[in-house]
Amino acid sequence: MRAVLALILMTTPALAQEAADAVAPEQATGLVRETPEPVTSDNWMVVAANPLASEAGAKVLRAGGSAADAMVAVQVTLGLVEPQSSGLGGGAFLVWYDAETGEITTLDGRETAPMAATPTLFQKDGEPMGFFDAVVGGLSVGTPGTPMLLEEAHRRWGRANWSGLFDEAIGLAEDGFSVSPRLAALVAEDEEFLSVAPATADYFMPGGSAIAEGDTLTNAAYAETLRAIAARGADAFYHGEVAEGIVATVRGAAQPGVLSLEDLDAYEVVERPAVCAPYRGAEVCGMGPPSSGALTVGQILALLEPYELAAMGPDSPDAWRLIGDASRLAFADRGRYMADTDYVPVPRLLDPDYLAGRAELLEGDDSLPEVSPGMPPWDHAALDLGDDASIELPSTSHISIVDADGNALSMTTTIENGFGSRLLAPGGFLLNNELTDFSFSTHDEGSPIANRVEPGKRPRSSMSPTIVMEDGAPVFVVGSPGGSRIIGYVAKTIVAHMDWGMDPQAAVALPNLVNRFGTYDLEDGTAATDLQGPLEELGFEVNVRDLTSGLHAIAVRDGTLIGGADPRREGLAIGE
Ligand code: GLY
């Protein structure tokens, strides 16, 4: 343990170094897990959810490619080897730091609701449908954004030959890849839903038997789709045979959806300004609406700013009281106010005076008995909105990359639920169920819900791809899968790194404690459960459960890159 702590102290930013000094060693031996040494490099680094995907990105970086080039290779490989989490049939958000200009921006490749979708899309007889009744089939499928995001990122920031970025994934799809333990386990758990569509069942359960760990799986249809995109760009996805296959699959499903060729033709990636929130002298920058990620992570951190978490340390129940209640307050605002700003005005949720007032609510000694949304300032006439109760279950994948020029990329990518809508398009990729990230209800006690379904709208996300900036340069690149718990996972990792001085590997491995709506979730099988009694005494309702984050982080310090991959999944950091 001493070696681990020494390494933590050696590799943290100056800010975190100060905080680490404040953590008594005996405190740091409780919740903090012993972790392998983080991967370090002076040149470039890629962290992704599967070793084959990380290696595909590493090959591009080794050959002098940019972070955007590497991301394309990583994403198209993940779509093959981790098909349950992300792929061509889904959407993604990308945060980019440009080393040449010093600017940070974001690309929104979120799925859109088809133009034929109505606010009652997920209602039957006037009542919201059951979640999985809505997920499985064509109704939940939004217009995919990932293929166009890949092209747009490469057009802006790529320097490698576009078509070459697909070679690795095409080779793996044609020659076969070894089914990972996680993919095999998830297929085994999901056989019932995967059986609903014959093409999906044939791929994941050939001859009626679920694919097993170590099986060699090929995907000729996916290789063909990749060849078409490599040759003709994203147009080969949004028009012609691939697009027609998507629409036929959605409309021909047992529960048909309303996606059309016109929706695919009209799809656009949108550049949006990064949303940044100050924390401990740094700027925590990420994805604004339609994601709730940066606003909610930013609110949590702003509410924690007045409190000395560093001095409390990671084993302090009071530190977790503050984190838990800050998160509850932020989630209350999220449920009422956050949605696609192209459709719904959103108030100034990061207004410093507003957040200073909310932070005072945390001054007591016990957990807050009740939490409700605040009254943030508006630039628009204030809207009377209802509270949303959208369900988001764990899913998704995160990619963190820093290239040799210092460009940094943080991208969270998803098909929503594990295996998405369970519809495999003829092009060899799963289609998303992203539309179930909308509220199934349109109103709450007579007031409209901001995140209701509307044609062309992007469903609210929790994805929180983040780049922390200090003195105008990136110091920490991080993100995670995990549905709406993503926000808590990312906030925890930032606090662990910045307040408690942990290196990226220790910070991502730190047990997860997540509070969204009042119940405190503690990670089963970890020292987090030691906090159950103390947190219950503070007034929290506690729930011990699996909390399978997939955090991927890179710290940048004095020209050295330090990477961490979440031990809960199959990710790998590679740096050279
Ligand atoms: N569907 C996961 C998310 O967007 O947060």
Automatic annotation (TrEMBL):
Catalysed conversion reaction: an S-substituted glutathione + H2O = an S-substituted L-cysteinylglycine + L-glutamate; glutathione + H2O = L-cysteinylglycine + L-glutamate; an N-terminal (5-L-glutamyl)-[peptide] + an alpha-amino acid = 5-L-glutamyl amino acid + an N-terminal L-alpha-aminoacyl-[peptide]
Annotated signal peptide: 1-16
PANTHER family with a match to the protein in the record: GLUTATHIONE HYDROLASE (PTHR43199), GLUTATHIONE HYDROLASE PROENZYME (PTHR43199:SF1)
Lineage of source species: Bacteria, Pseudomonadati, Pseudomonadota, Alphaproteobacteria, Rhodobacterales
UniProt record similarity statement: Belongs to the gamma-glutamyltransferase family.
EC number from the UniProt entry: 2.3.2.2, 3.4.19.13
Assembly and interaction partners: This enzyme consists of two polypeptide chains, which are synthesized in precursor form from a single polypeptide.
Natural source organism: Tropicimonas omnivorans
Protein's UniProt name: Glutathione hydrolase proenzyme
